[in-house]
Specification:
Blueprint lengths: L1 E5 L11 H13 L5 E7 L7 E10 L2 E12 L2 E6 L15 H15 L5 E5 L12 E5 L7 E2 L1 H8 L4 H4 L4 E2 L2 E3 H8 L2 E4 L2 H6 L10 H6 L4 E3 L28 H13 L5 E5 L8 H13 L3 E5 L4 H13 L4 E4 L4 H10 L2 E4 L9 H7 L4 E4 L2 H6 L7 E3 L4 H14 L1 H8 L7 H15 L1
Parallel strand pairs: 1-2, 1-6, 2-5, 6-7, 7-11, 11-12, 13-14, 13-16, 14-15, 16-17, 17-18
Antiparallel strand pairs: 3-4, 4-5, 8-10, 9-10
Amino acid sequence: MRVLHVAPEAYPLAKVGGLADVVGALPKALRPLGVEAHVLLPWHGGLEARRVGEVAFAFFGREERAPLGERVEGGVRFLLLGVEGFGRERIYGYPDDAERYLRFALAAKEVARGYDLVHAHDWTAALLALYAPTVYTIHNLAHQGLVDPAPFFHWTGLPWTLFHMEALEFYGRVNLMKGGIVFARRVTTVSPSYAEEIKTPEFGMGLDGVLRRHAGKLVGILNGLDTEVFDPGKDPYLPAPYTREDPSGKARAKEAFRERTGLRPPVLAYVGRLDYQKGLDLVLKALPRLLEMGFRLYVQGVGDEGLQEAFLRAEEENPEGIRFLPAYDEAMARLAYAGAEAVLVPSRFEPCGLVQMIASRYGTPPVARAVGGLKDTVEDGRTGVLFETYHPEGLLYGVLRLFRLGVEEMGLRAMEKDFSWEGPARAYREVYREALG
């Protein structure tokens, strides 16, 4: 079976969030199961690859051509499409994102002809479901890919009947994610709990009715971790290796973390995107109480400018209690996973979440909200603490309960959990078989 993963990002070539970790790791886990999986990405600015050909495709009624590159990393074959608009610094966040990714998807369908099945990831690749046998994965329902209908149908050349039959229509606009759900042979999302939540109005982001109608082809498969990349026993970013059986090296990580940040323990860490989805408003509101109780806070991430300004201001006002790093820094992220006393994951909603899994593997228990993949991966009171109420008091209660129950013991139990891709990969292989009938 030959499967082409089509996505905007994949580790280690291009990464903004957890989607990249999934797309980078899953193909490796599928290989021992007899699935030949390659990854197709846009040829983002700065990526080096060997040119292996050219792809001709139609866009706006004209033929366009894009160079095709190839690069092998970690045994995975990555293909890069050099369509117009991607030689830039960022993966997302431009006014013409819809046009860029539609152009990419139309070129990708030509590459897909050489494969049995397409595995399309999120809105940026959703269009592939209209052209090829597709398994479509929703990584985050909040980002749906909305496009005005006139430019969409001019760019793609698809018939307007698709809009009028409501296969793509969403409050007067084209919704690419809706198209992926409607036309894919199977739809997956990244945790069992999130698969149930998104069929409700509270979490469905306006697509809950569509998801209920297509519930028969929807399944939640929990994301795994690349346990070779995230392994405290051989992590090159840590000052000393450690394992559950011999955790002595963790003390070295704590010392190095303290030296790098200037924060004395106990330190609570947040590592990830600066996004209101992640519950960072709760962290800011709970911060005065946390500091009063003697906790320190390390925050690392990029994203929303308002949140960035708020944490910069908080650090200026509390230089001994807060450290904020507005950057993607893998070395510091690993040190935080290993050196903090606990990680905070207070999300409003969370399709899966990788931070709580990474931190658990490094023996640092999470304080997480009981939503989506967080409640599928954190054993409340055993490997971390879950709290229900989206309120600063809920977060404070979770932090105090974690420390009352015993941080170190909970961290050691968290290291026992199996977050590898072995089980999820078997589940995806079964979904692929169903999709191919």
